[in-house]
Design the sequence.
């Protein structure tokens, strides 16, 4: 088993040492997340610019249900905890627990996405369509982009679990879980910023 | 499945054989000949060449567009193009040259030479590298398909609102433009992450950051610029897409939108992009000038750090594109000063290049001529650039031909001359043949004269007030004497054709060289950096053994040694001897990544997904399904070779073999 791992490690970086000590995959993930910061930066700036421009549509304070969103935010934050548990299980080479925590994380993430879908439908019924106002367009763009990121994360979690279960992982298993974890934590942290700026600070 | 150096017979248990079970759903492609070899390759050298070919094709497309523009403006009341066609022509000329020629051509050099310069056998993520290429091609095709599907984008390359809106751009051109650029942007983003990881993580032992060749350094800076500027344009493009295709009003001022939002988002990307374009050229001539001056680069750390600081300050000057927008005195002052400040590191570089040549035994090859051309022409463009940092003067010049003159001097005189210098310098490395120097000389002089005739008069035209995007001018308003617009427009148009002939000489040179060019010696220029330690053209695995680096300009220091008494350099080995020594000490069982279907499939999926925005949800769903399928195929593809991949261990121990099984 250990020997196989060495082989795959070896193959993953094409027989090279790594000059920084970080693996290629992890360095790439950090760079990608750095890039994502600016993606969300652009969307958040747009929202901040337009949040007061409601035209004939509802005003943010009229439609936001802060207790509901606080609960779904709490669910998302807790998923970071279960993600950490999945990573440590993977590092201990405990496949069963890794899969368990990956599933729980994915479920929590899916709950958050479900909450967002519910929130969007409610807002829509209350008269806030995507094209209602500049505020609504920028609100749906920003939170929608985040929702897509969470959904992609859920797919990644479930796929990782499936691949581990069928023992088809190529490369270092605990690192793969860790990389998914990095992405997942990033999406969570972005949500903290979005939640604070959109819901908690009155416009 | 992978391409592998045959293990030598002493190796009883192959060191890198994988677990026995094939993990993937579909086996990896193993074709070694014909079109399959290129379509499914993950070799950074083949991908680099394909980048070069694609970029060259778009260079010609963009060049033809430019010639049509100049034909239209050569005489008063031009009738070659209608106003609408003219708008499409200049928009697509700029977009093509920037996104489909300049960036991919720099990408071609980066892809090919980065691993070679740092002593690596490939990039960090070979399959992602192939994906970048195919996504770029998908983006380029979508952009240019608009010509045949109802008209190309016509809002100018920075696509300000309201020009980008449906009132002024009713055709699908802008939609294709938005999609094409988004896809090309994803390609660049993936490529930049890949190259950064390659440079940071895969340097040969001993190659510290301050021993890296300057070209590698500049490319590294460029990739950081891309990683942090591309997401901003992506946001702008996505918002514009939501506006055009899904009814949002982000940039519609009549609906209460902020007219400056697009401008800020665009230029926060757009200005770093300017340095994305020019820094590779700087990197190339920082290799060429020392080689042909036969001196080390003067002030290596200054060249490196000024390049890095250009990159850093480049993020803080974007609003100088918006002085005419009325930002208020404080913003204007801040951006004026930061713009002036960026001239400092640029000036440092110019002086370093001059001092590199100073006292050197200069060898006037074509590559060297282009490099010197860059220094001169870029300096002219840089000086007119400094005049733009003075906001009152810039407000006068905004959207006149003066601006057009400026950016063509820095981009054509700077970047394109750098790339051409690179062609002549590295052609023997890539293809094993020397480009014809005599034709090269014709190529150079036609381009220099043509470019100055084309873009020089634009300074005068601009200061006389000829607007940048005017599609026709009339004799009645052309003015008198030395400042007659008609005369200078004619000079400029004639110049553009001389320039085109210069480029034609290059294309002829390629054909002649390919047919019966001189076989290049191993080290034709007495070069200084590691890529010349590989054979020409390099073997599939680049280096027979991974070099251990002790010096900046490692290859030079392996050839020459300082005489302790006279303090002069004396030759201790030729390049050819060094390469032969490497071959004799070659590593056995070198593992290279295997070819893959998935980059191509994934790129097609992304392209179809994008077209779905224009052609409706079913197309989009189909594209998304292909993307999802390809992603899983990608993840599940066996990443390690199997025993069957090794050819039988008889025969000579070191010849490269590709397993033919499968």
Sequence:
């Amino acid at each position: 088993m250990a020997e196989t791992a060495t082989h795959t490690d070896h193959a993953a970086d094409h027989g090279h040492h790594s000059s920084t000590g970080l693996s290629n995959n992890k360095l790439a993930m950090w760079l990608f997340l750095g890039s994502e910061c600016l993606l969300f930066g652009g969307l958040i700036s747009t929202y901040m610019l337009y949040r007061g421009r409601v035209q004939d549509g509802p005003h943010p304070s009229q439609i936001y249900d802060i207790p509901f969103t606080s609960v779904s935010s709490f669910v998302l934050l807790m998923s970071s905890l279960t993600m950490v548990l999945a990573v440590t299980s993977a590092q201990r080479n405990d496949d069963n627990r890794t899969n368990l925590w990956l599933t729980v994380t994915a479920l929590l993430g899916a709950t958050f996405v479900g909450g967002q879908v519910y929130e969007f439908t409610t807002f829509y019924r209350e008269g806030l369509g995507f094209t209602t106002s500049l505020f609504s367009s920028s609100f749906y763009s920003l939170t929608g982009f985040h929702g897509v990121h969470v959904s992609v994360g859920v797919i990644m979690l479930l796929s990782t679990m499936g691949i581990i279960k069928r023992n088809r992982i190529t490369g270092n298993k605990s690192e793969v879980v860790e990389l998914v974890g990095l992405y997942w934590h990033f999406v969570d942290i972005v949500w903290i910023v979005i939640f604070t700026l959109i819901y908690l600070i009155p416009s | 499945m992978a391409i592998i150096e045959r293990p030598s017979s002493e190796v009883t248990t192959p060191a890198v054989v994988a677990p026995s079970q094939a993990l993937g759903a579909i086996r990896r492609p193993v074709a070694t000949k014909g079109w399959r070899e290129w379509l499914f390759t993950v070799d950074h050298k083949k991908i680099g060449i394909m980048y070069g070919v694609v970029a060259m094709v778009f260079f010609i497309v963009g060049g033809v567009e430019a010639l049509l523009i100049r034909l239209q403006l050569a005489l008063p009341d031009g009738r070659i193009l209608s106003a609408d066609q003219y708008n499409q022509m200049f928009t697509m000329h700029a977009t093509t040259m920037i996104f489909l020629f300049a960036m991919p051509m720099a990408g071609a050099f980066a892809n090919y030479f980065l691993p070679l310069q740092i002593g690596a056998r490939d990039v960090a993520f070979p399959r992602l590298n192939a994906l970048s290429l195919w996504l770029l091609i998908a983006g380029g095709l979508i952009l240019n398909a608009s010509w045949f599907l109802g008209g190309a984008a016509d809002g100018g390359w920075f696509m300000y609102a309201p020009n980008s809106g449906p009132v002024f751009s009713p055709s699908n051109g802008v939609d294709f433009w938005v999609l094409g650029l988004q896809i090309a942007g994803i390609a660049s983003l993936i490529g930049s992450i890949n190259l950064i990881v390659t440079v940071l993580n895969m340097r040969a032992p001993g190659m510290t950051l301050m021993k890296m060749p300057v070209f590698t350094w500049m490319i590294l800076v460029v990739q950081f610029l891309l990683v942090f500027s591309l997401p901003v344009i992506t946001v702008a493009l996505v918002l514009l897409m939501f506006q055009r295709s899904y009814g949002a009003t982000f940039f519609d001022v009549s609906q209460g939108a902020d007219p400056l939002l697009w401008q800020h988002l665009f230029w926060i990307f757009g200005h770093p992009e300017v340095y994305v374009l020019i820094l590779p050229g700087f990197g190339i001539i920082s290799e060429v000038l020392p080689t042909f001056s036969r001196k080390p680069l003067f002030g290596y750390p200054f060249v490196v750090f000024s390049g890095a600081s250009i990159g850093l300050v480049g993020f803080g000057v974007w609003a100088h594109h918006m002085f005419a927008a009325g930002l208020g005195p404080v913003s204007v002052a801040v951006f004026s000063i930061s713009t002036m400040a960026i001239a400092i590191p640029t000036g440092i570089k110019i002086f370093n290049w001059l001092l590199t040549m100073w006292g050197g035994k200069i060898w006037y090859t074509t590559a060297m001529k282009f490099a010197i051309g860059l220094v001169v022409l870029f300096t002219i463009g840089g000086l007119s650039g400094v005049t733009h940092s003075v906001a009152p003067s810039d407000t006068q010049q905004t959207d006149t031909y003066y601006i057009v003159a400026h950016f063509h001097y820095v981009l054509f005189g700077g970047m394109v001359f750098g790339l051409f210098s690179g062609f002549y310098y590295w052609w023997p490395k890539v293809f094993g043949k020397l480009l014809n120097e005599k034709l090269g000389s014709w190529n150079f002089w036609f381009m220099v004269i043509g470019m100055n005739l084309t873009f020089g008069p634009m300074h005068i035209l601009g200061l006389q007030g000829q607007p940048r995007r005017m599609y026709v001018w009339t004799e009645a308003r052309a003015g008198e004497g030395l400042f007659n617009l008609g005369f200078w427009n004619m000079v400029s148009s004639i110049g553009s054709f001389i320039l085109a002939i210069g480029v034609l000489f290059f294309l002829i040179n390629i054909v002649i060289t390919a047919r019966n060019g001189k076989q290049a010696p191993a080290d034709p220029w007495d070069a200084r950096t590691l890529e010349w330690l590989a054979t020409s053209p390099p073997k599939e695995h680049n280096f027979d053994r991974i070099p251990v680096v002790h010096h900046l300009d490692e290859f030079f220091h392996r050839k020459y040694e300082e005489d302790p008494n006279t303090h002069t350099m004396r030759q201790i080995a030729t390049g050819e001897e060094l390469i032969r020594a490497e071959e004799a000490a070659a590593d056995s069982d070198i593992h290279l990544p295997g070819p893959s279907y998935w980059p191509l499939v994934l790129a097609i999926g992304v392209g179809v997904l994008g077209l779905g925005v224009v052609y409706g949800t079913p197309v989009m769903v189909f594209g998304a399904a292909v993307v999802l399928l390809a992603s899983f195929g990608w993840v599940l593809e066996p990443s390690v070779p199997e025993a069957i991949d090794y050819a039988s261990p008889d025969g000579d121990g070191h010849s490269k073999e590709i397993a033919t099984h499968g």
The longest helix of chain B spans residues 83-117. Residues 1-24, 641-662 of chain B have pLDDT under 50 and may be disordered. Residues 268-467+482-492+505-520 of chain B form a domain with the Cytochrome C Oxidase; Chain A fold (CATH 1.20.210.10). The longest strand of chain B covers residues 560-562.
